[in-house]
Amino acid sequence: MTTSQRYAALLRGINVGGHKKVPMAELRALLTELGHGDVRTHLQSGNAAFTSAGTDPDALAAQLAEALRERFGFEVGVLVRDHAYLQALIDACPFPAAELEAKQLHITYLSRSVTPDELTRLDAASFLPEEYRPGDRALYLHTPEGLGRSRLADPLSRAIPASAGPATTRNWNTVVKLAELTGV
Protein backbone atom coordinates (compact mmCIF):
# COMPACT_ATOMS: atom_id res chain seq x y z
CA MET A 1 0.00 0.00 0.00
CA THR A 2 1.37 3.36 -1.02
CA THR A 3 1.08 6.19 1.46
CA SER A 4 0.55 9.75 0.34
CA GLN A 5 1.74 12.97 1.84
CA ARG A 6 0.44 16.54 1.46
CA TYR A 7 2.71 19.12 -0.07
CA ALA A 8 2.59 22.76 -1.07
CA ALA A 9 4.03 23.93 -4.37
CA LEU A 10 5.21 27.53 -4.41
CA LEU A 11 5.71 28.97 -7.88
CA ARG A 12 7.91 32.02 -8.30
CA GLY A 13 6.93 35.05 -10.35
CA ILE A 14 3.80 33.88 -12.15
CA ASN A 15 0.72 36.01 -12.88
CA VAL A 16 2.53 39.21 -11.93
CA GLY A 17 1.80 42.23 -14.12
CA GLY A 18 0.45 40.07 -16.93
CA HIS A 19 3.69 38.08 -17.26
CA LYS A 20 4.13 34.32 -17.03
CA LYS A 21 0.41 33.62 -16.95
CA VAL A 22 -0.51 30.31 -15.38
CA PRO A 23 -4.25 30.01 -14.75
CA MET A 24 -4.93 28.20 -11.49
CA ALA A 25 -7.37 25.80 -13.18
CA GLU A 26 -4.55 24.77 -15.54
CA LEU A 27 -2.11 24.41 -12.64
CA ARG A 28 -4.60 22.13 -10.88
CA ALA A 29 -5.06 20.10 -14.06
CA LEU A 30 -1.30 19.84 -14.60
CA LEU A 31 -0.69 18.60 -11.06
CA THR A 32 -3.47 16.04 -11.52
CA GLU A 33 -1.97 14.91 -14.84
CA LEU A 34 1.34 14.39 -13.02
CA GLY A 35 -0.42 11.88 -10.79
CA HIS A 36 -1.05 14.02 -7.73
CA GLY A 37 -4.35 14.06 -5.91
CA ASP A 38 -6.62 16.37 -3.93
CA VAL A 39 -5.15 19.39 -5.71
CA ARG A 40 -6.16 22.83 -4.44
CA THR A 41 -4.83 26.26 -5.31
CA HIS A 42 -4.73 29.38 -3.19
CA LEU A 43 -4.94 32.85 -4.73
CA GLN A 44 -3.58 33.52 -8.23
CA SER A 45 0.07 33.82 -7.28
CA GLY A 46 1.21 30.24 -7.64
CA ASN A 47 0.29 28.37 -4.49
CA ALA A 48 -0.98 24.82 -4.72
CA ALA A 49 -1.51 22.02 -2.23
CA PHE A 50 -1.63 18.41 -3.31
CA THR A 51 -1.26 14.83 -2.20
CA SER A 52 1.52 12.69 -3.64
CA ALA A 53 3.10 9.30 -3.15
CA GLY A 54 6.41 11.01 -3.95
CA THR A 55 8.73 11.40 -1.00
CA ASP A 56 11.36 13.80 -2.40
CA PRO A 57 10.13 17.42 -2.42
CA ASP A 58 13.03 18.51 -4.67
CA ALA A 59 12.17 15.82 -7.24
CA LEU A 60 8.51 16.86 -7.12
CA ALA A 61 9.54 20.50 -7.67
CA ALA A 62 11.76 19.56 -10.63
CA GLN A 63 8.96 17.48 -12.15
CA LEU A 64 6.48 20.35 -11.84
CA ALA A 65 8.96 22.94 -13.16
CA GLU A 66 9.62 20.78 -16.25
CA ALA A 67 5.90 20.22 -16.83
CA LEU A 68 5.26 23.98 -16.55
CA ARG A 69 8.05 24.71 -19.04
CA GLU A 70 6.63 22.17 -21.49
CA ARG A 71 3.04 23.38 -21.08
CA PHE A 72 3.57 27.16 -20.98
CA GLY A 73 6.93 27.65 -22.71
CA PHE A 74 8.73 29.53 -19.92
CA GLU A 75 10.77 28.71 -16.84
CA VAL A 76 9.12 28.87 -13.44
CA GLY A 77 11.02 28.47 -10.20
CA VAL A 78 9.23 25.89 -8.06
CA LEU A 79 9.68 24.92 -4.44
CA VAL A 80 7.78 22.03 -2.86
CA ARG A 81 7.47 21.76 0.91
CA ASP A 82 5.61 19.40 3.22
CA HIS A 83 3.33 20.29 6.11
CA ALA A 84 5.91 19.60 8.84
CA TYR A 85 8.32 22.09 7.28
CA LEU A 86 5.65 24.75 6.75
CA GLN A 87 4.39 24.40 10.32
CA ALA A 88 7.93 24.46 11.71
CA LEU A 89 8.55 27.80 9.99
CA ILE A 90 5.43 29.25 11.58
CA ASP A 91 6.41 27.89 15.00
CA ALA A 92 9.95 29.28 14.70
CA CYS A 93 8.94 32.79 13.62
CA PRO A 94 11.27 35.24 15.37
CA PHE A 95 8.76 38.09 15.09
CA PRO A 96 5.51 38.45 17.11
CA ALA A 97 3.20 37.22 14.34
CA ALA A 98 0.07 37.45 16.49
CA GLU A 99 0.71 41.15 17.07
CA LEU A 100 1.38 42.06 13.43
CA GLU A 101 -0.80 42.56 10.38
CA ALA A 102 -0.27 39.92 7.68
CA LYS A 103 1.11 42.58 5.32
CA GLN A 104 3.89 43.30 7.82
CA LEU A 105 5.30 39.78 8.00
CA HIS A 106 6.60 37.64 5.15
CA ILE A 107 8.63 34.52 4.53
CA THR A 108 10.97 34.20 1.58
CA TYR A 109 11.27 30.49 0.85
CA LEU A 110 14.66 29.33 -0.45
CA SER A 111 16.17 26.15 -1.87
CA ARG A 112 18.75 26.15 0.90
CA SER A 113 19.45 28.09 4.06
CA VAL A 114 21.64 31.16 3.86
CA THR A 115 24.09 32.14 6.54
CA PRO A 116 24.43 35.64 7.97
CA ASP A 117 27.90 35.74 6.37
CA GLU A 118 26.33 35.36 2.92
CA LEU A 119 24.24 38.46 3.53
CA THR A 120 26.98 40.66 5.03
CA ARG A 121 27.03 43.04 2.07
CA LEU A 122 23.54 44.10 3.13
CA ASP A 123 23.69 46.80 5.83
CA ALA A 124 20.56 45.68 7.67
CA ALA A 125 20.81 48.45 10.27
CA SER A 126 20.28 51.08 7.57
CA PHE A 127 16.79 49.68 6.89
CA LEU A 128 15.43 49.72 10.45
CA PRO A 129 12.70 49.41 11.62
CA GLU A 130 12.45 46.82 8.84
CA GLU A 131 14.25 43.61 9.74
CA TYR A 132 14.97 40.13 8.49
CA ARG A 133 16.03 36.93 10.22
CA PRO A 134 17.34 33.72 8.64
CA GLY A 135 15.43 30.48 9.12
CA ASP A 136 15.47 26.94 7.78
CA ARG A 137 15.69 27.45 4.01
CA ALA A 138 13.86 30.72 4.53
CA LEU A 139 14.17 34.36 5.49
CA TYR A 140 11.63 36.04 7.75
CA LEU A 141 10.95 39.65 6.76
CA HIS A 142 9.25 42.22 8.99
CA THR A 143 8.09 45.32 7.09
CA PRO A 144 6.04 47.64 9.34
CA GLU A 145 4.71 49.61 6.33
CA GLY A 146 4.07 46.52 4.19
CA LEU A 147 6.07 44.88 1.42
CA GLY A 148 4.96 47.38 -1.21
CA ARG A 149 6.54 50.24 0.73
CA SER A 150 9.56 48.27 1.94
CA ARG A 151 13.05 49.70 1.48
CA LEU A 152 14.60 46.38 2.58
CA ALA A 153 12.77 43.83 0.39
CA ASP A 154 14.54 44.53 -2.93
CA PRO A 155 18.08 44.83 -1.50
CA LEU A 156 17.51 41.67 0.53
CA SER A 157 16.27 39.84 -2.56
CA ARG A 158 19.37 40.93 -4.50
CA ALA A 159 21.65 39.87 -1.62
CA ILE A 160 20.39 36.28 -1.63
CA PRO A 161 22.99 34.11 -3.36
CA ALA A 162 21.82 32.56 -6.63
CA SER A 163 22.66 29.16 -5.17
CA ALA A 164 19.83 29.63 -2.64
CA GLY A 165 17.20 30.08 -5.34
CA PRO A 166 14.61 29.93 -6.54
CA ALA A 167 13.41 32.31 -3.87
CA THR A 168 9.76 33.26 -3.52
CA THR A 169 8.03 35.39 -0.90
CA ARG A 170 4.62 34.99 0.71
CA ASN A 171 2.80 37.17 3.24
CA TRP A 172 1.87 35.75 6.62
CA ASN A 173 -1.75 34.98 5.69
CA THR A 174 -0.53 32.82 2.80
CA VAL A 175 2.15 31.21 4.97
CA VAL A 176 -0.52 30.14 7.46
CA LYS A 177 -2.99 29.09 4.74
CA LEU A 178 -0.40 26.83 3.07
CA ALA A 179 0.24 25.10 6.37
CA GLU A 180 -3.51 24.61 6.76
CA LEU A 181 -3.92 23.29 3.22
CA THR A 182 -1.16 20.74 3.72
CA GLY A 183 -2.36 19.63 7.14
CA VAL A 184 -3.91 16.20 7.40
UniProtKB/TrEMBL annotation:
SUPFAM superfamilies: SP0830-like (SSF160379)
Originating organism: Streptomyces gougerotii
Record InterPro entries: DUF1697
Name of the protein in question: DUF1697 domain-containing protein
Domain of life: Bacteria
Pfam families on file: DUF1697
